[in-house]
Write a structure and sequence with these properties.
By secondary structure, this protein is α+β, with helices and mostly antiparallel strands. The protein has 4 helices and 5 strands. Strands 2-3-4-1-5 form a 5-stranded antiparallel sheet, with helices on one face. A hairpin with a 2-residue loop joins strand 2 and strand 3. The N and C termini lie far apart (48 Å). The N terminus is likely disordered.
Length: 154
């Protein structure tokens, strides 16, 4: 019996197979940065909101602290730090085997409104160093994993 057209196991890479797997190869979908810039959130001055850094903070539940009270709301007038507690961690275990349920987990987002033509990537070294200094001032037992993001906020 012949495999149906577009069956990924038929050994014949048809257009249907390629289209079905396009999400695995973003280069097949084309560059959508211009479309994303047009859709992104903008402030009253027309600047677009861009996530510079994104990640997680956590601490043992026994540490009765709210990290929103420990971290600054801004790093400068136009670099904002959002720290939101999560009802549950988006993972079960930490790398060391600690149960995520034993920790209070926060999502951390650092964003800035950027002018048209401004490259937000140029801000990353300063923002990362400044945030690192703030994180190092948190109480013992606080952990974090923060990565650069550079996506528009929608």
């Amino acid at each position: 019996m012949a495999a149906p057209h577009g069956d990924p196991n038929d050994g014949d890479p048809s257009d249907d197979d390629i289209a079905a797997d396009a999400h695995l190869r973003p280069e097949e979908l084309g560059d959508d940065r211009e479309a994303r810039v047009q859709r992104g959130a903008r402030d009253a001055r027309g600047r677009r909101a861009v996530r510079l850094l994104q990640g997680y903070l956590w601490h043992p539940r026994e540490l009765d602290r709210d990290l929103r009270e420990v971290l600054p709301a801004t790093l400068t007038d136009d670099v904002h730090v959002l720290c939101d507690p999560l009802a549950a961690a988006p993972f079960t275990f930490f790398d060391d085997g600690t149960l995520a349920a034993s920790q209070v987990v926060y999502q951390l987002t650092v964003l800035r409104f950027v002018e048209e033509g401004e490259d937000p990537a140029t801000l990353l070294p300063w923002v990362a160093e400044t945030l690192q200094r703030e994180l190092e001032r948190t109480p013992a037992g606080v952990g974090w994993q923060i990565l650069d993001d550079l996506r528009d906020v929608f």
